[in-house]
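Hey, resending since the last one bounced:
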Amino acid sequence: MSSKSCDVVVVGLGPGGEALVARLAKAGLSVVAVEAELVGGECPYWGCIPSKMFIRAANALEEARRVEKLAGSVSVTPDFSIVAKRIRQEATDNWDDTVAADRITAAGATLVRGHGRLVGDRTVEVDGDRFEASKGVVLNTGTTASVPPIPGLADTPYWTNREALKAEAAPASLMVIGGGAIGLELAQAYSRFDTQVTVLEVGPHILGPEEPDSSALLAKVFEAEGIGVHAGITIDRVDHDGERFTVTCGDATYDAEQLLVAAGRKSRVDDIGLETVGVEIGRFLTVDDSMQVKDGLWAIGDIVGRGAFTHLSMYHAERAARSILGEEQSEYDSSFPRVTFTDPEVGGVGLTESQARDKGINVRIGLTDLAASSRGFVHGVGNDGLIKIIIDEDRDIIVGATSAGPAGGETLAALAFAVRAEIPVATLKNTVYAYPTFWRAIESAL
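The structure tokens again:
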């Protein structure tokens, strides 16, 4: 077994890990970057980038179908091979990470492929080679699809998000187990390519982490588009007869050509040697606001439980870099903006109404129908949406907000800054909102 010295070892090269490696290497540190799969992680190959490319194609089909209610007549014939080719060639380079790997080495870091595992403080082993880091180790091992222990499921050829985004043809029918962001985005996208889709959610409503108002809005839109939505159910078993899947839910059964399991994500913390450094293995790793787990050990991204989003992983990377380099650290931004890229898009920031009430905040709500706004009116078909703001009455600030609509993620920007900067509601009311825009609906909610 060889042993090599360096300043820092980064285990896991998702977006945050890749950014951190480049930042530290360019600062003059000797960095060993470890990756077991593809450099770049889930986001560019099986997540954010290919899924949004898929959604863009699906939304173009839906917009074309809306022409008859707005401007004339049109014939729409979906061709899944076009978007499948774009994903393969433009988004993922046929799942080849050469370009990303070259970025790592060009930054001056050493790329090591294999499964990295702690074997002691500041020491990582990768397939028999040991790397001893004088400053420490950063873990960015991410998540994998969580597959619930439903009887029969493990013996079937189900999809996760990875198979759904590598598919070269759209199935005639699809069942989706899970009504969270990933499941809903893929459900609607496949539906717009003429796949008959059914969503099965064991929770009381779809899009559980967000406002119930958003859930009700999306359920209404999905039903109108012919997507079956069944929430608050129990899934008893899954069967596959060689051609079709059958899901049994009490007295009801659902069947389809394909099954997508999108029941959340599981942190990759089980086999990375945490026990060798005295860190308890739980669902997530506990970190301080500089992303430090303990002396000489940092963790960033999904595994710290502060939100499983690329933008948060990148934010964590910068904070870890500042900690490692001894640079000044600013206050941690806990405003937590996020977007579900369905149509309508659902953007959220800060606390939901229930979270705010659970914290004992004196809550006042502002809520407006986006379709009834000036921009919603002229937009016409496809204008479903809402703006909801959660106001801390005692402090006169917005502590949370939802922006759902045709450009919900973009409209969220104004609300995200309002929450982050704790702009007084009085100031927000005394602000000029451009007419006619979707974000002008914020004024109506206020």
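The chain has three domains: 3-40+97-144+266-325, 153-264, 338-445.

Sorry for the duplicate.
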